[in-house]
Amino acid sequence: MFHHAPEKYSFKIIPKYKPSPQSEVFDVAHVEELAQNVNDLDKRFFLKVLGGAGLGLFAASLFPKKADALIAGGAPTSNVVGIKNATNTRINPATESTLQSLLTGQGVTKLTTSISVSGTIHTPAAGRKIRVYATRFSLTADATSVSFRFTAGGTDYEKYISPKTGGLYGSNNHPNYVEGGVDQVLYCVIVGTTTVQINVDYLEI
């Protein structure tokens, strides 16, 4: 009878995967490269944001802080609104309030008169001029024409052809006006047979 000695078995655990030194170096380098790319993107984004903010501040510095700081014909300032005339002199713009102040402060006169032949409507005080803001009239019969001027020999600044009986004619020039010379009378020229009732808003200056 034979007896066999029990067989002995030995085991060796072999790892399924072991990266080579080369692969380890490659992975580390790749990770570092990715990190560098992320850092570059962050830096670029930061620089873009910083640049946009800088441009915004620069643009804001070019414009006045308030819309009413803009000036027609001049450089912007912080609190002045102005307009320049043809001689490059700054003037105050006409508004409803400034016009009302002008009319109240300087006492615009309303003249009413009736004439049936050409003649003087108003004579200014010595050394003064007439500034007309509005002229209106009606008539009792049809006329060939009715016109207004400064002095009998002056040029018509307002003329109506074939005005009819019962009509109301005229113009309101506020805030504008027409103005005669020193000592020049306001004159009405009537062509036709009629009586003209005239109303004038004016100042003597």
Give an overview of the whole structure:
This protein is α+β, with helices and mostly antiparallel strands and 205 residues long. It has a domain at 107-204: Jelly Rolls (Sandwich). The chain has helices at residues 21-62, 96-106, and strands at 83-84, 90-91, 109-115, 119-122, 130-139, 145-150, 158-161, 169-172, 178-179, 186-191, 196-204. Strands 3, 5, 8, 9 and 11 form a five-stranded antiparallel β-sheet that branches. The protein has a four-stranded antiparallel β-sheet with strand order 4-10-6-7, with no helix packed on it. The protein has a two-stranded antiparallel sheet with strand order 1-2. A hairpin with a 5-residue loop joins strand 1 (83-84) and strand 2 (90-91). Mean pLDDT is 75; it is low at 68-73.
Topology:
Layout: H1 21-62, E1 83-84, E2 90-91, H2 96-106, E3 109-115, E4 119-122, E5 130-139, E6 145-150, E7 158-161, E8 169-172, E9 178-179, E10 186-191, E11 196-204
Antiparallel strand pairs: 1-2, 3-11, 4-10, 5-8, 5-9, 5-11, 6-7, 6-10
Summarize the structure.
With 205 residues, the chain is α+β, with helices and mostly antiparallel strands. The protein has helices spanning 21-62, 96-106; strands at 83-84, 90-91, 109-115, 119-122, 130-139, 145-150, 158-161, 169-172, 178-179, 186-191, 196-204.
Index terms:
205 residues, alpha+beta, Jelly Rolls, five-stranded antiparallel beta sheet, four-stranded antiparallel beta sheet, 27% strand, elongated
